[in-house]
Amino acid sequence: MPSDMTTFKGKPFDRASLESVMKRRLFYTPAFDIYGGVSGLYDYGPPGTALTNNIVDVWRKHFVLRENMLEIDTTMLTPHEVLKTSGHVDKFADWMCKDPKTGEIFRADHLVEEVLEARLKGNKEARGEKVEAEEEDPKKKKKKVKNIAAVKMDDALVTEYEEVLAKIDNYNGEELGLLLKKYDIKNPATNGELQPPVAFNLMFQTSIGPSSNMPGYLRPETAQGQFLNFAKLLEFNQQQMPFASASIGKSFRNEISPRSGLLRVREFLMAEIEHFVDPEGGKKHPRFEEVADVELELLDREVQLSGKTNVKTTKIGEAVKTGLVDNETLGYFLARIQQFLLKIGADPKKIRFRQHMANEMAHYAADCWDAELLTSYGWIECVGCADRSAYDLTVHMKKTGAPLVVREPRKEPLKVEEWVCDIEKKKFGPKFKKDGKTVENAIEALTQDLREKLSLDLEKEGKIVIDVPGVGDGKVEVPKELITIEKRTRVENVREYTPNVIEPSFGIGRIVYALCEHIYWTREQDEARGVLSFPPTVAPTKALIVPLSSHSDFKPFVRTLSDKLQEAGVSTRVDDSGASIGKRYSRNDELGTPLGITIDFQSVKDNTFTLRDRDSTEQVRAGLDEITTAITNLVNGKEQWSDVATRLPKFEGQEVDA
Ligand SMILES: Nc1ncnc2c1ncn2[C@@H]1O[C@H](COP(=O)(O)OP(=O)(O)OP(=O)(O)O)[C@@H](O)[C@H]1O
Hints:
It comes from Macroventuria anomochaeta. This protein is α+β, with helices and mostly antiparallel strands and 658 residues long. The protein is built from 23 helices and 30 strands. The protein is globular and about 110 Å long.
């Protein structure tokens, strides 16, 4: 566990305690549990579902609503051809290596990472330095990496290991194979030899329809559905650029070794934005000025390549100006991502943005940064933000011929001088017969430079010779009777271009889990009393209604309060069990319920209630309308507890929490 893992209340974070709360209170649970479960598949219980929905709701308001994005909902089943064209069939893979004796399979980069980290820890132990507790597999009560003795290493090797770890995402399969060999990494459980890494495609394959002749996949991201609808969305947006589409939905990846609970699973909720922008003019963003002063913790590529992990606090305006972040639109989204994470309650000290290294980035990407959240599992990528250039629209257009382009009238007509090839169609057919179309296409595809050169050949030699693969010996002679090549001037009134795409891509499950780590703590007086301090906007339930006892006099008040709050869209729960009020509140602290209303005999007399704040346990007392207004204001983010506590009379009676 990273040594800087303290809760926002400054206490050491206790993962086992949080996991016990999440399990007991049914935030999430292994899917198909009574059948033994399937690794990497989880179901969300009531609080987990409500929390996820509330986070998605904030996401929608923060991005879709605030920026007029076009939200769409596209299919998860995707035909082979689409994902072949996008490159996923050939390239969407991780490296795995197999132990041929036991049949166990490891994800190569994770194995290298775990073994080197364990050896570094062993070195610290051998030197008598303080080490953090080893992570255990809670089911098997087994250390994650066995057979790593506490052995002293020399300083040069320690530095080498640290450098490898700092750029672990940058290695390809061959390089990982070399690292396994160089550092003598074997099956940690048996010490058995491993086979060299091979690529394993992460997509789940299926076939669409009864005839099995249309292979398909469950989508690994929502992005492709958005690209394929680009032309229709542009039309819907009345041809206005720039614009963004957005989509929220499940994606599927057949992870080699799912681990760390919700952090690496095989089915997860994604929220993705595809912002389409004109590549000319530096990819400016009209609202960049609004965020230019937002400070981000940036971990750039160069620092990682030097084996370090130091972040630099930088204003995003500055980072774009110096070229560290490639352009305004990418920078705009990095700042907006941070604002979103803060809005839902992430700890500002546990957010950083890490730039991708060259090998890690898709070959077409111009720049890419991950928003990482610090958890007890280390820094975890929760949002990827990539400039995908014009890659996706270009490949789909090439494959289908669909015009995935923007056409806009030019302010000033543009004069274009170009070399034009005209062919004598009547003579072309009889001369080339069945190859006519292929030769014609080859001429069409000639570059301007080549056309210029060929025009001289035509003049000098009365013919040209061009490459036409698949026809004769691949060289075709075209005599001057069949072709003319001339320089002409064309006036262009319309500009046509393929937009570039900036893509912020959010993994909601990872955000949910990391957020829970950030806001979990235990009360001073009783370590066993866990509290999840969700901001009221994202808390699964907003208010707990607690009658002092099950006395029938309290029932109409419970009803009135529930009705009034529910009608205002505030989710409530009633706890009229026989437990003490303190106990009932602490049960709901674990669920992250921010507000509690107590109904007591005074309420029956004068229709006043106490309202309790989860984090401070302070209470105020007021009438029905004032209490419900305060709750709706807190839930909608219009007021903070400090405002309410100043405005309404403090309750000085018995501390219900005592
Ligand atoms: N297996 C997974 N389980 C849960 N969330 C995931 C998983 N894979 C990706 N995500 C989420 O989707 C987001 C966008 O996906 P992206 O393709 O950028 O991830 P990635 O780079 O493949 O992640 P990683 O390197 O951790 O496998 C990630 O930032 C993450 O939040």
